[in-house]
Amino acid sequence: MKLLMVDVDGVLVYGRPSDGLPLFTYLERDLGLRLDVLQQAFFKTCCVDIVTGRDALEPKLAEVLGRIAPHLSARTLIDYWFENDSRLDHDLLEDLAALRAGGTRMFLATNQEHMRAAYLMGELGLSSRFDGIFYSAALGYQKPAAEFFRLATERVGISASEIGFIDDVEANIKATRHFGWKAMQWTAGSTLQDAITAFSA
Question: N or C: less crowded end of the chain, CB within 10 Å?
Answer without folding.
Answer: C
